[in-house]
Design a protein that fits this description.
By secondary structure, the protein is mostly helical. The protein has 9 helices and no strands.
């Protein structure tokens, strides 16, 4: 097999998608469950006239909350990575020989004999010592580095899309069918989210879909029960 073919094959690895995929799946799932739960609670409490306002408000508030929360969370990870990077720069400036020995021991622990580990550490240090330590000592890779803006945008958009699905069920249903349609639309949305997540992540379809469906169903059931109690 040619080297070009090997590179093309490696493009199918999904590690580079982990940042935005996690944010998108979380956003869509949260949008579906939280807005469906909100709408079910409002409907079960006998406040059907407020469903549209509640649903739209839930979409707006949830999207902004997800975006801000995701940005802050991922930015914290980026700050840690930046701090680690600066620390390694300082260590390399203060004690290059000690850092070279550290790399050598890392490669020994991974199975290389001492002479070969020394050669590898020396070669990588000669090329780019900082990159070698960030990658092999700290596990920092370009493909999975923290990207706050990307995560915020992905979570906000996916939340809005997910939250819109149960709202459609609430708006098209009659007085006696609103709760049923909200649940139906939400479950269809959760199934779709699980299927897309499975496809993008390469995980087993049935297990992924069931995990999303069961979690969402529990959340909606609890909220519906609270709404029913409020209606009493």
């Amino acid at each position: 097999m040619s080297l070009e073919a090997v590179y093309k094959r490696n493009e199918h690895h999904r590690g580079s998608k982990s940042g935005w995929l996690r944010a998108a799946v979380l956003g869509a799932n949260d949008g579906l469950v939280s807005n469906a739960s909100l709408l079910i609670g409002v409907a079960a409490a006998g406040r059907s006239s407020f469903l549209a306002i509640a649903g739209i408000s839930g979409i707006a508030a949830g999207s902004m909350s997800m975006a801000v929360g995701e940005y802050i969370s991922v930015q914290s990870q980026a700050d840690i990575e930046a701090s680690d990077r600066q620390m390694e720069i300082d260590h390399l400036a203060l004690d290059p020989e000690g850092e070279l020995e550290e790399l050598t021991q890392i490669y020994q622990e991974r199975g290389l004999e001492r002479p070969l580990a020394e050669q590898v550490a020396a070669a990588l240090t000669a090329k780019d010592p900082l990159a070698a330590h960030l990658r092999d000592e700290l596990g920092h890779h370009e493909n999975n580095e923290a990207k706050p803006a990307q995560a915020a945008i992905a979570s906000a958009i996916s939340f809005a899309l997910g939250a819109t699905i149960p709202l459609i069920g609430a708006l098209i249903g009659g007085t006696g069918t609103k709760v049923s349609l909200i649940i139906l639309f939400a479950m269809i949305g959760l199934f779709t989210t699980g299927a897309i997540s499975s496809r993008l992540a390469g995980s087993p379809l049935i297990r992924t879909v069931l995990r999303v469906l069961i979690g969402g169903a529990i959340g909606m059931a609890i909220t519906a029960g609270i709404g029913a109690l409020a209606h009493i």
